[in-house]
Design goal:
Blueprint: E1 2-7, E2 10-15, H1 22-28, E3 47-50, E4 53-56, E5 69-71, H2 77-89, H3 99-112, H4 118-124, H5 133-143, H6 147-158, H7 167-171, H8 178-181, E6 187-193, E7 199-205, H9 207-210, E8 215-219, E9 250-251, E10 257-263, H10 266-275, E11 277-282, H11 330-335, E12 360-364, E13 370-374, H12 379-389, H13 405-418, E14 429-431
Parallel strand pairs: 1-5, 6-14
Antiparallel strand pairs: 1-2, 3-4, 3-5, 6-10, 7-9, 7-11, 8-10, 12-13, 12-14
Helix pairs in contact: 2-3
């Protein structure tokens, strides 16, 4: 079907599918400030204005806004500029992924209530700012500063030297995240995951799924290297054991990868995933870490499991590491104390995770080198680990600090030989 939408003041006409979401429409038209966060209508990062009313674009069909006016942060730069600058000056932008959605919600609040009290601000923004108090506090402070105070703050911030270089780009929704930078002609890659906590993959029938138009290739445990590696971002030799494969016949947790599907677009990949037929041999699982040690059920019974460092690792006892150390006579020290307080203390579980969804783009450059764009804090570890995944070289020969140009070129040749779907011109780009 065809739709006509006034997007940020420009009329856009496009052919869309009946099930296309509004978030996909606006991002396809260059509005990268609209972020994919939860995709469950909870986080508010996908907020846009439809006929001046805030809506969650991840939960609205594009067809529903046919003939409507849609505004994203790209079209509201002047309205968002002052508050965005204040957030950046205060260092409250953090990673910046959530800032555009938050500013959109702040603008929506101002339009409803131009002069909110501190309590009204906190109540309105309680949901989206629950996990980012710095942002909420900055907003409250900014709103209740006088014009003179704001100018003084601006003057002070203009003299600071520790402000992040990309602060304003982050808060105004510029395309600086991985999913924003991927080329439009990338293959889309998704993973089929295990529904079982412990099982053997007896077979994966891919013939029907491979016939889906647009599917480039499908990989199972039979198609990948069988040399184990570690995903730990640690200096070589890593303390963590080499216990992983790209795809393993033995799946060990709910969500363990079973198959990899690469196709020309997300729709065909999703369709192919549903057509994969997997036969599992379900095994007893260890679900309580208190009972894992010396359990008859082994998480890693395989013989090619290995640990490079002597840290007490033993896969036959379900031990990743084990150590005991003593320093001094604890009992003697306690006996000499005037008072000894004993108790059992509990703390709440805390999950620390970023809102940015994981995306990676890979392509071969003109020199035959594999280039990977990804969001990570361990760039050099990843550069060492990936060749191990793909068996480019013996892990023991890899330098922890640097790799030669010859090594990288050789690595890329191995990659080309290994990855069939990168062997044709238009297929030389891959996105996950």
């Amino acid at each position: 079907m065809k739709v006509k939408i006034l997007l940020n003041g420009t009329m856009r006409e496009a052919e869309i599918s009946s099930d296309q979401l509004l978030i996909d429409f606006v991002r396809d038209h260059g509005c990268y400030s609209v972020k994919r966060g939860c995709e469950t209508s909870n986080c508010g990062l996908c907020t846009v204005f439809v006929d001046d009313k805030p809506v969650l674009s991840c939960s609205m069909l594009t067809a529903r806004v046919d003939g409507c006016k849609v505004d994203t942060l790209e079209g509201l730069q002047e309205e968002a500029k002052e508050f965005g600058a204040f957030v950046a000056d205060q260092g409250a932008e953090q990673c910046g992924f959530c800032n555009p959605g938050m500013i959109m919600n702040a603008i929506a609040m101002f339009r409803e209530n131009p002069e909110p009290t501190r309590e009204e601000i906190k109540a309105y923004l309680a949901e989206i700012f629950a996990d980012v108090p710095d942002m909420k506090d900055s907003f409250v402070q900014w709103k209740h500063l006088s014009n003179t105070e704001r100018k003084e703050k601006d003057h002070e911030s203009s003299r600071t030297t520790d402000k992040k270089k990309d602060a304003m780009a982050l808060v105004t929704g510029k395309p600086v995240f991985m999913d924003d930078l991927a080329p439009k002609d990338c293959l889309i890659v998704k993973v089929l995951r295990s529904p079982h906590a412990n099982a053997i993959v007896k077979s994966v029938k891919t013939d029907v799924a491979k016939r889906v138009p647009g599917i480039e290739d499908i990989y199972t445990w039979e198609d990948v290297p069988h040399e184990r590696f570690t995903t730990a971002g640690q200096t070589y030799p890593e303390l963590s054991p080499y216990d992983r494969l790209i795809l393993d016949q033995h799946v060990r947790y709910v969500g363990d990868p079973v198959a990899i599907v690469a196709g020309e677009n997300e729709a065909c990949v999703d369709k192919a995933l549903k057509m994969l037929k997997v036969e599992y041999e379900v095994l007893p699982a260890v679900l309580d870490f208190h009972t894992a040690k010396d359990n008859e059920v082994l998480v890693h019974p395989e013989d090619n499991w290995k640990a490079l460092c002597q840290v007490g690792a033993d896969n036959k006892r379900n031990l990743c590491a084990c150590d005991s150390t003593e320093d001094g006579n604890v009992e003697a020290v306690l006996a000499d104390c005037d008072e000894v307080v004993e108790g059992t203390y509990h703390v709440r579980a805390a999950q620390q995770a970023m809102m940015e969804t994981f995306r990676t783009t890979c392509f071969m450059d003109a020199y035959g080198r594999l280039n990977i764009l990804s969001s990570t804090q361990i760039v050099y570890h990843v550069r060492r680990i990936i060749p191990m995944h793909l068996e480019f070289r013996n892990p023991g020969s890899v330098s922890a600090n640097r790799e030669s140009e010859a090594d990288l070129v050789q690595s890329s040749r191995s990659w080309r030989n290994y990855s069939r779907h990168l062997s044709h011109g238009r297929r030389e780009k891959l996105r996950r």
